[in-house]
Write a structure and sequence with these properties.
Elements (H helix, E strand, L loop, with lengths): L2 H10 L16 H11 L1 H15 L14 H20 L3 H13 L3 H4 L6 H16 L2 E3 L6 H12 L6 H15 L8 H11 L3 H14 L4 H10 L4 H24 L5 H27 L3 H14 L8 H12 L2 H11 L8 H13 L7 H7 L3 H16 L3 H5 L11 E3 L3 H17 L3 H8 L24 H8 L16 H22 L1 H21 L1
Antiparallel strand pairs: 1-2
Helix pairs in contact: 1-8, 10-11, 11-12, 12-13, 13-14, 14-15, 15-16, 16-17, 17-18, 18-20, 25-26
Length: 538
């Protein structure tokens, strides 16, 4: 694959002035107008109700009967507020106040307060820790190259694919991985420490060249040039190979001195991070240039040589490369190791597991046949795997089914958020398309997941409740021209609307009957006569 093809995977498959084939265009003005009107529907009904009351204030003699009907008025207002609160939050306001505030006052604190170290206290602390970890921003294991992919996208479209928040997180990562307390001992490392803190890209590149002038074996300087100055994947790979040569020399030197002092141990950790980063990016270069088996070998060697660095999620790079090779048995072996209950989950883990189970039944799956004869065991397993994946990240199916247009993935993702869904679908959409019927099975079954999840989201089905912080974080990570996907809101049941309408109409009829008994009596007789005539006619 030529160096231009390294960009084709990034720039042409993402959002651009001319959307890529098969991807849905952004919503037009009609869709935006319809969404705006739907959002203001409740407000319009409220304003219309106030206008109707104002128009009927004289014939209904509201002012005269206000004192007499104060209790009824208050009851009606409480009913309207309760209906609005349930519609917005999915729970009863009166029930929530009773449980949260009145119950402790009435002596219900003994059962609700748990001793430290008790099972209920441990479960609550575990849930809080899980919620905090799920709202944590993670480094995207498949992040693109700034110079060879992100910057070329900007040249073509004139849009900035990375936000300031995302790039600031990357700068913090670089300072954490590529610097240590002993940088002042080497002038080149001192220059690079300042370079990683620099916000201006040309200034960072200039500092990298200054570091190379001081020390031609400065590995981190080659890393910065490969990431930001190289305009093609081939150029980036060439610079990373130079960084690898320098990084291995420094790493061997640090290994020999690691036991001399704590500073030398910190230096070894830094040099280890640099070496692992270089090898991983070289594997990604090989993957983008079509040398997939070479990329797989580098990743496997990395995982064997540095097993403690599982937090870098190198296995997700390996999964994507193995899927490209269609080595599904090897993919299953990787999942058997990392799809464990004690390890953090990700969209790549959950949806790849669903893809493997879908692969066994998707070519023969038909909704009509399944509804007629029912699902067999393999189909049930595939559907359950899809439901599990959708519960973990409900935003992915819209990108896989091309209901939303893709953009370039950010450098950081939020697990279970829209940013993770974009990062997954950007690289894995081709693998779903390659398996016949996989997207068809996904389309037929993914929405059924939400029928199994309690509403409101007080608890999950297979995972912890969907965190409420994802939308805010995704808006910081994703560019402004992208419409952020949010958790699908569940519609109110029909009986809620029916009960509200029935109570409102009954109250209105009772009020009119009380104010105008003669007219309402004539009206009731007329309605009864008309209904009797219709029955006799039928």
């Amino acid at each position: 694959m030529a160096d231009g093809d390294g960009l084709s995977e990034a720039a042409t498959a993402a959002a651009s002035p001319a959307p890529a084939p098969g991807l849905s265009p952004p919503p037009g003005w009609r869709e935006r107008l319809r969404a705006g009107l739907a959002g203001t529907g409740a407000s319009l009904w409220f304003v219309a109700g106030l206008g109707l009351l104002y128009a009927l204030r004289v014939p209904l003699r509201l002012c005269e009967n206000l004192a007499a009907g104060t209790s009824s008025l208050i009851s009606g207002l409480i009913f309207i507020f309760e209906w609005w609160y349930f519609h917005k939050h999915g729970t009863s306001f009166i029930e929530q106040v009773s449980v949260s505030h009145l119950r402790p006052l009435m002596g219900g604190t003994e059962s609700s307060i748990s001793e430290p170290g008790s099972p209920s206290s441990n479960r609550e602390s575990e849930t809080s820790r899980q919620n905090l970890s799920e709202c944590k921003v993670w480094r995207n294991p498949l992040n693109l190259f700034r110079g060879a992919e992100y910057r070329r996208y900007t040249w073509v479209t004139g849009k900035e694919p990375l936000t300031y928040y995302d790039m600031n997180l990357s700068a913090q990562d670089h300072q954490t991985f590529f610097t240590c307390d002993t940088d002042f001992l080497r002038p080149s490392d001192t220059v690079m420490q300042k370079a990683w803190r620099e916000r201006n890209p040309p200034a960072r590149i200039k500092a990298a060249y200054q570091a190379l002038e001081l020390n031609n074996d400065c590995a981190t300087a080659y890393v910065l040039l490969a990431e930001e100055e190289a305009t093609t994947i081939v150029d980036a790979e060439r610079l990373f190979k130079q960084a690898l040569k320098a990084g291995e020399t420094i790493y061997r030197r640090s290994q020999q001195c690691q036991h001399q002092s704590p500073q030398h141990e910190a230096q070894l950790r830094r040099d280890t991070n640099v070496l692992v980063y270089i090898k991983r990016r070289l594997a990604m270069c090989a993957r983008k240039l079509g040398r997939i088996r070479e990329a797989v070998k580098i990743m496997r060697d990395l995982m064997k040589e540095f097993p403690p660095l599982t937090m870098l999620n190198i296995h997700e790079n390996l999964l994507e490369s193995l899927l490209e090779l269609q080595a599904y048995a090897d993919v299953q072996a990787v999942l058997a190791k990392y799809d464990d209950i004690s390890l953090p989950k990700s969209a790549a883990i959950c949806y790849t597991a669903a893809l493997l189970k879908t692969r066994t039944v998707s070519d023969k799956f038909s909704p009509e046949t399944a509804s007629r004869r029912g699902l067999n065991t393999a189909e049930i397993n595939a559907v359950e795997a899809i439901h599990r994946a959708v519960e973990f990240n409900p935003h992915v199916p819209k990108y896989l089914l091309e209901m939303k247009s893709l953009i370039l993935p950010p450098e950081h993702i939020l697990k279970r958020g829209d940013s993770e869904a974009i990062a997954y679908a950007f690289f894995h959409l081709q693998h779903w398309k390659r398996i016949e019927g996989a997207l068809n099975l996904l389309q037929c079954t993914w929405e059924g997941t939400f029928r199994m999840i309690p509403y409101p989201l007080e608890k999950g089905h297979l995972f912890y409740p969907y965190p409420s912080c994802t939308e805010t974080a995704d808006r910081e990570l994703l560019p402004t021209f992208h419409h952020v996907s949010v958790y699908p809101k569940k519609e109110l049941p029909f009986f809620i609307h029916f009960t509200a309408g029935l109570c409102s109409s009954t109250a209105m009829i009772a009020l009119l009957t009380h104010q105008f008994p003669e007219i309402m009596g004539v009206f009731a007789k007329a309605v009864s006569m008309i209904s009797r005539t219709c029955v006799e006619y039928l």
